[in-house]
Amino acid sequence: MEEKSKMKKVSTWKLQLRMFLAMMLFGLLMAVVVTVIGVFFNISFPAFYAGFFLLIILGQYLAGPKLVEMSMKVHYVSPEEAPNLHRLVEELAMNAGIPKPKVAISEFSIPNAFAFGRRQKDGRVCVTQGLLNRLNEGELKAVLGHEISHIKHRDMIVMTAISAVPVICYWLALSTLYSSGDNDGYSFIIGIVALAAYVIGQLLVLFVSRVREYYADQGSVAIGGEPHQLASALYKLTYESASASKEQLKEVQGFKAFFVNDVSDARNEIQELSQLDLDMDGSISQSELDSLKYNRVNIKTSSRLFEIFSTHPNMVKRVKRLAEMS
What we know:
- By secondary structure, this protein is mainly alpha-helical.
- It has 2 domains: 2-210, Zincin-like; 228-325, no CATH class.
- The chain has 15 helices and 4 strands.
- The protein has helices at 2-9, 13-40, 47-71, 83-96, 129-134, 137-153, 155-162, 164-177, 184-222, 227-243, 246-252, 266-273, 286-292, 301-306, 315-325; strands spanning 74-76, 102-106, 113-116, 124-128.
- It has a 4-stranded mixed β-sheet with strand order 1-2-4-3, sandwiched between helices.
- A hairpin with a 7-residue loop joins strand 3 and strand 4.
- Helix 6 (137-153) crosses helix 9 (184-222) and helix 13 (286-292) crosses helix 15 (315-325).
- The longest helix has 39 residues, at 184-222.
- The two termini are 20 Å apart.
């Protein structure tokens, strides 16, 4: 009961506002692209293209879970097959006040977890086999709390929808910039507009993705995850991703936005994260996290700049925020 009340105190109105504004900006981007097409090709009904784009987004929304299942080798498990995993998910979902998500395990060896689905009642939480082999129960609970918070906040639904828009703009830019025909001049202008929309749209997707991670960390703590356990889990996941082979990283590259950490930047992040592991035991203890409240951390300028183009916030900054919650 106490954990439920804590969950109510977590304010997500800023997250909801940012996601709403992002949706509005994406709508504006699509309107600009469609209008340009209509003007230069003298199309009386550019709404046809708008309908076509919306159909693609709807298709991604409906087919998204199945695509994730196939690409990430997702296998749903019963309570008999994974009793501890089901117990933790059920407890955290109850604390969060949402229906219990489906529970699944991915065959990938890179330790990580992700949530997906079309809505809260259709939520699914999946952990990789590598995660189960690497984390202790407290760390596992904190990571599951992070993923269940994504479902609670409904941000995964927004990410599924808006991530299709830059792809559409990119496809439109390629098909018009390199086209040949009577309307070469018009096609080039449309291609430039679509390319600009792609760049802006991609930066917006990355911004929304980073913001939602902070709120999922906060949500995990609110529904029962311990800050130092989540910090330790993030440290271990980053270390394992940094140690992974190029082939292993390539397998999951397309879905890194759904993961707990940015696997592609792990090699850079682990160098900065190691300064937090004072006793060098490969984890972050409560005392180490407490000391972070009062100690300054070093974040390279290059890391701050790279963060703009990353799906996740800088890992040291995330752990610093967790220290402030402990």
